[in-house]
Amino acid sequence: MCPVGFTLSMLKASHMQTCGKCVPCRDGLGQLEALIEEVLEGLADYETLDDIRALAQSIKDTADCAIGYDA
Questions:
Q1: Which of 33, 39, 35 is nearest to 51 (CA)?
Q2: Cα angle, residue 64 at apex, residues 59 and 67 outer, rounded to 5°
Q3: Fewer CB within 10 Å, N side or C side of the chain?
Q4: pLDDT 10s per residue in the chain (71 long)?
Q5: For residues 59 and 32, is the Cβ–Cβ distance under 8 A?
């Protein structure tokens, strides 16, 4: 299995488990999914990868629960 595809599957599972109360999980995980889908579709560039890294770190630092942190 493609590691990027696996990551996207795990991210979608985490996004479905969130309560939706905090912005990092509710909005950030969806944005992260869209960015990773760009990678899988071959539409990403190095800026996209930087955006993924920055958004993931922001979600990790600001999420209210372990679901957002772990995702």
A1: 35
A2: 70
A3: N
A4: 899 999 999 999 999 998 888 898 889 999 999 999 999 999 999 999 999 999 999 999 999 888 888 88
A5: yes
Block residue for tokens 């958004």: 55
CA angle 13, 54, 12 (to 5 degrees): 10
- Looking up tokens 């560039």 gives 45
The stretches of 1-71 forming alpha helices (DSSP H) are 3-17, 23, 29-40, 46-62, 66-70
Q: Round to whole Å and give the CA distance between 15 and 58.
A: 15
